[in-house]
Specification:
The chain is of the alpha+beta class and 731 residues long. The protein has 20 helices and 16 strands. 27% of the residues are buried.
Length: 731
Amino acid sequence: MEADGFQYRCLYAYDKERDEDIELKPDDILTVDKASLLSLGIREGDEQHPEQIGWILGYNERTRQRGDFPGTYVQYVGPVKMTTPPSHPRSQRPLPPAPRPEPHHSQPVASPEDLTGQFAPPDTAPPLLIKLVEAIEKTGLDCKTLYRTATSSTPDSPPVPTLSLSSESLESDMGQWDADALSAAVVRYLQELPSPVIPVAVYAELLAAVQRGAEPTPAEGRGPVRDILEGPSLPLHHRLTLQYLLCHLERVVQHSESNGLDPHTIGQIFGPLLIRGSGTQSETDTEFFALVLERLLLERVWEQEPVPPALPPKPAKAKSASTPVVNGNDISLSDAEWYWGDISREEVNDKMRDTPDGTFLVRDASSKVKGEYTLTLRKGGNNKLIKIFHRAGKYGFSEPLTFNSVVDLINHYRHESLAQYNAKLDSRLLFPISKYQQEQLVKEDSVEAVGEQLKVYHEQYQEKSREYDVLYEEYTRTSQELQMKRTAIEAFNETIKIFEEQCETQERFSRDTIEKLRREGNDKEIQRIQSNSEKLKSRVTEIHESKKKLEQDLKKQALDNREIDKKMNSLKPDLMQLRKLRDQYLVWLTQKGARQRRINEWLGIRNETEDFYSLVDEEEEQAHQDERTWYVGDIKRSHAEELLRGKLDGTFLIRESQTQKGSLACSVVVDGEVKHCVIYKTATGYGFAEPYNLYSSLRNLVLHYRHTSLVQHNDSLNVTLAYPVLAQQPR
């Protein structure tokens, strides 16, 4: 690495994910300091393969921003001096008149230098070529002799103008040339390039691709010829020039009815100009070149946006590597319940559907690279895919890879937040999707064992619920206190304003009074006025101190309130998962014929007169099992009230909500009146309020609230969903 820095060209758009990133657009030029690459341990030659480096610190020449960008989104251009000497204006020197083309004499085109010396990105082609093409398209693409006479060198051919890359009068000269002269200049320009636009290095690959006869697939719009020309064998400047020319030739072909230049004819003219094989070109070579260009026009490579590759792993925030949590059982990856092996993304989505945040599983990576896996995590109601990398016997989400196994990695993040890896993933791996529980949801194999485990889950759920309720009460209380303190601070501000105005008024009038009393020698009155002034100022100071203390208390209590809110949010996933597990065990016990009284004992319900929890009751609950007895579809609120008028307390129906689209409404008779409440449909399930939106179906919700009062959600709804409106009413 003998240069001060290196330049890279952006291939894909990138929206920054962190503050330290920079946004990219295709064709942006990025400059990277050599020292920053050396600090990453990059060896000589590695700078030409940015996709292997990962995240790179550089400078965007377009936006003038400095920050990180993904190496997989850029292409190496070449070395560059990071600090260039300031330019000094040169003395103006008049140019001689540009030579005019003279009739009957052909003048050679000034030999251009190699493409890499004619332009630099973000320009898309050599300036001279751009001016010629723009002049041709402005003159008209309907000319019947366009590009026809350019390949001829007979004495009767139209004169080819002399072109100079540095000619300042070139643009004005072009206005006097016709389409034939301009097109002849383009052809001569391409003939005189030191190396062809499509270099000899890719000749053999193109020959093999065309001989295979593979056509581009309609679904992808790609073909083997395009794949070769997007590879590393074609330098950046050549690729940009080729794309520019193909775009121009496509516009020429669009006027083929008038100019007679169809794709095949264009291929015959420009194929030999853009591609040159080694040695003498035969007639077969010429046909091959024409076929390649025709294929490029068919594949329309200038229109297609390549799909961005996967981002490299994000480097962890500045933090020392945590000691991985070692699995005490020392299980292998294949034995881990959350490892599913080689399953598709669609299968994963199906298994993760309607699961709470923190649910996860691990599968083999789609790349099929040995040692690489994909972690799927439920976060914010969506599935987040995180790649697990493997190198030199170590595993991790990003460099440095520090875990000895995938099991160690997963165990670590079951106790620590993934925010260590990505600030947006502030969650632990809470609930594994077990491959063992998919075939058999309940691990235990006897009714007694299942009942005892149900008891454990139920007690854990009750404990978490009590903890959540305590936090909720505390959060409500502190929120009210915070509002009162904010109101008090506003009152302090008004009081301070009044006192300060009094101080200013007293000081303004006391100056004249004191001066008058001093002349009269009334020292006693002067002392009284000064004493009152000091007392007033002292009072203002006391009010300021009281306000300051209140503001400090408010700040501390606000922090405490936010901590309570965080704790409540952290409990919600546990509540939802425990509730789900309890439901699974209850279903299993009911299917195995366990008596309800025994289930109540496991649930700690000793008094038979108490409300008890059950998903499936005895025969009297059959009406609740049938949705047709209580679900009435999309009816109006007034119609629901008519159906329920005069019914017993606890008679209910469920309908589509008229006010909140996508939600439902429960209408129920309470104390002889019809009340209405919203049933929310969320990613975690149905329910009346968080964190209880966790019923997988409306039937499960109805069965639960058949025995559980709605008063926990609304003080005015002290009722259960006892009687479906369309079922036979009890006498």
